[in-house]
């Protein structure tokens, strides 16, 4: 009896790397029982080959297939599966589960080594089928950084015979290396990006990722965001074009930058939000990025309040005050006190050049003040004469300080009218001069007070009196008033020349003078001529 069983490979089978036995035949007379068993085996082989053929067609050209027999281990693999393991023959896969494990190290995407019982081959041979097991494969003989590696997405399937019994297993392997590495790069960028961001899944509009910057900005936790829908955590609240933004979100279109307010546990936070659609694998997402405008909004509000306070203080200052451009000294604004004292309206003095301002009595005064302000940044009590709208000339003290307004260097000028004070001082000095023409009946202390009054407008910080001098200094001053030189004083008082010079220097310092003649004038202004001063001569 001769039995022919055909399991011929088609051209499509060979295209996918699958070659089946051409013809299996029996031509010797054998017992019927043996014939029956042989026929059943060949039929099972044909059925298994047809199942494997269907599996190859389902897998397509982009997937690798490894066939495993329960008793024989790895018996076949297509070229794609070999390439995904960086080998060229089935034998290099290790043939058995233990051999495969000895050659290849598998790790999860978290970097943990896969235990031996969880290797795909071990799971299949234990009767467990599975889907989408993602693992990184490396050669155990070279696991250094930069060595070969490949990320596999593996699913395990069983092949059955005509009676539905499992006869063998197949591993279907998809190369997802590029996708996983791109996702890893995206994750690293997303987590370390300084810009606050969240990722929303478009299928159900729930948040799936949030970076630390967003949590820091809002004060929320990861649990407060991930898993919630865009309707419960509304990141587009108060957006002027919210309806359009929601429509674009549902359609998976980009969302233009728009202002919004995030509702937080403690009030709201102003942000600018934009959305960019992204794809991760087969899933579609929207990446929302945020710009925190709350600090700038608060700064603007604080600046606005400061400006309002400055304007109010400027207007209410009781002395004439001017705001001018530092370069060119063009007046920008004047306060009410300026209008009251000088009589000019705002239109009379603002927006005019330095040379056309009617206020300066001295044509070059404004230029001189501008130069001084440019060098020092501030001025204090500069004497100037200013002309009022009525043609009256006022003696004034001018102080100025540089400040920046709207990125322009300006000067805040304060003017104090001292005309009345100077007039009173002049009248007092005239009276003092009249009285001192005959001062013989005044005591020395009164004369000194009057002399100090006469010089009080001097910029010097302190004017000494005769009472500040020691007895020896008074003796030397008396001789100076009599016209004696240092050498004559040495002979008169029996002192050394250096001692006399030191006393003279101290007299200069206390009187705030710099010459012998000035010291004599200073003494005579105080009624001290030295004529009647008794000297304590040193013993000869």
From TrEMBL:
Signal peptide positions on this chain: none
Domain HTH luxR-type: 462-527
Response regulatory domain span: 1-43
Molecular function GO terms recorded: DNA binding
Domain PAS: 182-236
InterPro entries assigned to the protein according to its UniProt record, in alphabetical order: CheY-like_superfamily, PAS, PAS-assoc_C, PAS-like_dom_sf, Sig_transdc_resp-reg_C-effctor, Sig_transdc_resp-reg_receiver, Tscrpt_reg_LuxR_C, WalR-like
PAC domain sequence ranges: 133-188
UniProt-listed GO biological process terms: phosphorelay signal transduction system; regulation of DNA-templated transcription
PROSITE patterns reported in the protein's UniProt record: HTH_LUXR_2, PAC, PAS, RESPONSE_REGULATORY
Keywords, comma-separated and alphabetical: DNA-binding
CDD domains per record: LuxR_C_like, PAS
PANTHER family per UniProt: NITRATE_NITRITE RESPONSE REGULATOR PROTEIN NARL (PTHR43214:SF38), TWO-COMPONENT RESPONSE REGULATOR (PTHR43214)
Name of this protein: PAS domain S-box protein
Organism this protein belongs to: Rhizobium lusitanum
Upper taxonomic lineage: Bacteria, Pseudomonadati, Pseudomonadota, Alphaproteobacteria, Hyphomicrobiales
């Amino acid at each position: 009896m001769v039995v022919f069983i055909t399991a011929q490979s088609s051209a499509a089978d060979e295209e996918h790397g699958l070659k089946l036995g051409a013809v299996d035949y029996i031509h010797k007379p054998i017992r019927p029982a043996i014939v029956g068993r042989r026929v059943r085996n060949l039929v099972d082989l044909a059925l298994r080959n047809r199942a494997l053929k269907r599996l190859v067609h389902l897998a397509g050209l982009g997937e690798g297939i490894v066939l495993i027999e329960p008793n024989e281990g790895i018996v076949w693999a297509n070229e794609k599966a070999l390439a995904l393991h960086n080998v060229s023959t089935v034998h290099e896969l290790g043939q058995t589960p233990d051999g495969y494990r000895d050659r290849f190290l598998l790790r999860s995407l978290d970097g943990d080594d896969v235990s031996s019982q969880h290797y795909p081959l071990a799971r299949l041979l234990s009767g467990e089928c599975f889907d989408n097991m993602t693992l990184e494969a490396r050669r155990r003989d070279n696991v250094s950084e930069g060595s070969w590696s490949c990320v596999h997405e593996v699913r395990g399937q069983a092949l059955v015979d005509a009676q539905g019994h499992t006869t063998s297993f197949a591993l279907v392997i998809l190369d997802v290396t590029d996708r996983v590495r791109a996702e890893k790069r995206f994750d690293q960028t997303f987590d370390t990006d300084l810009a606050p961001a969240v990722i929303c899944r478009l299928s159900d509009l729930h948040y799936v990722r949030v970076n630390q910057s967003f949590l820091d900005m809002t004060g929320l936790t990861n649990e407060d965001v991930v898993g919630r829908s865009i309707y419960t955590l509304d990141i587009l609240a108060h957006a002027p074009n919210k309806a359009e933004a929601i429509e674009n979100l549902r359609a998976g279109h980009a969302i233009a930058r728009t202002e919004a307010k995030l509702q937080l546990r403690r009030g709201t936070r102003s942000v600018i939000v934009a959305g960019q659609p992204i794809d991760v694998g087969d899933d579609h997402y929207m990446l929302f990025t945020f710009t925190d405008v709350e600090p700038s909004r608060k700064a603007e509000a604080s600046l606005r309040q400061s400006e309002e306070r400055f304007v109010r203080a400027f207007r209410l200052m009781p002395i004439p005050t001017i705001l001018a451009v530092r370069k060119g000294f063009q007046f920008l604004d004047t306060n009410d006190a300026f209008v009251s004292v000088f009589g000019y309206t705002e239109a009379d003095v603002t927006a005019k050049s330095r040379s056309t301002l009617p206020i300066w009595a001295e044509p070059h005064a404004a230029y001189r003040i501008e130069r001084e302000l440019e060098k020092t940044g501030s001025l204090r009590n500069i004497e100037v004469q200013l002309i009022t709208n009525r043609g009256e000339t006022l003696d004034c003290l001018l102080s100025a300080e540089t400040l920046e307004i709207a990125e322009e260097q300006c000067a805040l000028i304060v003017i104090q009218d001292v005309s009345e004070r100077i007039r009173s001082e002049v009248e007092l000095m005239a009276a003092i001069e009249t009285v001192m023409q005959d001062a013989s009946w005044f005591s020395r202390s009164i004369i000194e007070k009057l002399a100090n009054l006469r010089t009080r407008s001097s910029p010097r910080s302190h004017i000494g009196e005769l009472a500040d001098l020691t007895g020896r200094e008074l003796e030397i001053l008396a001789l100076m008033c009599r016209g004696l030189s240092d050498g004559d004083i040495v002979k008169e008082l029996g002192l050394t020349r250096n001692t006399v010079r030191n006393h003279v220097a101290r007299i200069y310092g206390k009187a705030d003078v710099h010459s012998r003649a000035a010291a004599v004038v200073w003494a005579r202004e105080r009624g001290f001529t030295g004529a009647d001063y008794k000297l304590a001569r040193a013993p000869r």
